[in-house]
Write a structure and sequence with these properties.
The structure holds two protein chains of two kinds.
Chain A: H1 3-6, E1 7-9, E2 15-19, E3 23-28, E4 32-38, E5 43-49, H2 65-79, E6 88-93, H3 106-120, E7 124-130, E8 136-141, E9 147-151, E10 156-158
Parallel strand pairs in A: 1-3, 6-7
Antiparallel strand pairs in A: 2-5, 3-8, 4-5, 4-6, 8-9, 9-10
Helix pairs in contact in A: 2-3
Chain B: H1 5-30, E1 34-45, H2 46-54, E2 59-68, E3 73-80, H3 81-91, H4 104-129, E4 134-135, E5 139-144, H5 145-159, E6 162-172, E7 180-185, H6 187-196
Antiparallel strand pairs in B: 1-6, 2-3, 2-4, 2-5, 3-7, 6-7
The chains are: A alpha+beta, B alpha+beta.
Keywords (chain B): Chemotaxis, Hydrolase
Pfam family, one (chain B): CheC
GO biological process, one term (chain B): chemotaxis
């Protein structure tokens, strides 16, 4: 399997779960990218959270932290064979992409909601890089659990 | 989001006419051939479209214009940072290759391009179809292509899993500029506009 075949891109509000040797990648602005990794079974997933809370009935549940994140955990444990006890999370993104004049800051609200849900679900956040005003480019290696993150205009850091 | 194929076809004609007018105006400003042609108008899946755009991880400079009035719409033009230098040279009537780095001139050139595109597209829709579109000041951003595109469609994605997307092919003669130009009309207001001009099917 070459590098291109290993790469899986995740769209906004989408969820992808895979296993080693695949690498999940996405770009984030005000959205939050949540990765969950089971290092024993080398299973990992990436949820691209667009908004904190779902309000309508007809929209895709993975767009929202309050519906997407519990669904993500459920899928990891019941459908892919990941061990819940060994799961840990890493979170990225949540930039302030728009001038909000002190009103609803999507990035900040997304991050807050994600942190609260992970805490409630008892999943440890092993690393995070959030905030700022520029986009994030992340690559999540399901083999190692490493997330290679590059904030626009900055150098690459591995988390 | 429901729209018939007939209505999409009419929107395609309206978009082609307005884009064509913007294309001619831009050619005049740049004093070189700028050709913008309609590539596709579709009801696109939000997740699939953003996934495709997230494949493009190049660093881009962009201008986004919001239109207010009876018909809501957004316009996004973006191109790679190195391409913006060529555009700056064209606007400043300099030999291509003169601009070496992105600076206030680059930002102004991109902003001006946004103004030209937005004003001519809205003028065409206003004069030919009685639309009411008022372009707001252009906003310049530089970031990854996928992040910029997400900013364009985020609001639409908050209310629907589909979006009405107009994609174009943008070429400037004598250059190999790779540019994106998207229009995202607000669906409901454009359905009303089609009603008002007698497109009922």
């Amino acid at each position: 399997m070459d590098n291109t075949e290993r790469m899986i891109t995740v769209g906004v509000g989408d969820l992808k779960i895979t296993q080693a040797p695949h690498v999940l990648k996405t770009l984030l602005g005000s959205c939050i990218g949540v990765v969950l990794h089971d290092p024993i079974n080398k299973i990992g997933g990436l949820l691209h959270v667009m908004l904190p809370r779902k309000s309508g009935n007809d929209l895709k549940i993975t767009k929202y932290a309050n519906t997407g994140l519990p669904y993500f955990i459920y899928q990891m444990v019941t459908h892919t064979g990941a061990s819940r006890g060994s799961l840990y999370a890493k979170i990225f993104g949540g930039a302030k992409m728009f001038e909000t004049n002190g009103l609803f800051n999507i990035g900040e609200s997304n991050e807050l909601e994600v942190r609260q849900i992970l805490k409630k679900e008892g999943i440890r956040i092993a690393a995070s890089r959030t905030g700022g005003v520029k986009g994030y480019n992340i690559l999540f290696d399901t083999e190692t659990g490493d997330v290679t993150c590059r904030v626009f205009g900055e150098s690459v850091i591995v988390y | 989001m429901n729209i018939t194929q007939d209505r999409l076809k009419i929107l395609e004609i309206m978009s082609s006419l307005s884009i064509d007018r913007a294309s001619r105006a831009l050619s005049k400003s740049l004093r070189t051939g700028a050709r913008i042609s309609l590539s596709k108008i579709s009801i696109a899946d939000f997740g699939e479209t953003t996934e495709k755009m997230n494949e493009d991880q190049r660093e881009m400079i962009s201008v986004m214009v919001n239109f207010k009035g009876n018909e809501g719409c957004k316009l996004l033009f973006m191109l790679p940072l190195e391409g913006s230098l060529i555009l700056t040279d064209l606007f400043l009537r300099q030999r291509i290759g003169t601009s070496k780095e992105c600076d206030v001139f680059t930002e102004s050139a991109i902003q001006e391009l946004g103004n030209i595109l937005a004003s001519h597209i809205s003028n065409a829709l206003v004069s030919d179809f009685n639309a009411q579109l008022i372009p707001q000041p252009p906003q310049v951003h530089n970031d990854y292509a996928g992040v910029i595109f997400t900013n364009l469609v985020l609001e639409q994605g908050m209310i629907d899993d589909k979006l009405l997307l107009i994609e174009t092919i943008f070429e400037i003669s004598g250059t190999e500029l790779e540019c994106y130009l998207f229009l995202v009309p607000e669906m409901n207001s454009f359905v009303k506009l089609l009603d008002s001009i007698g497109v009922k099917t």
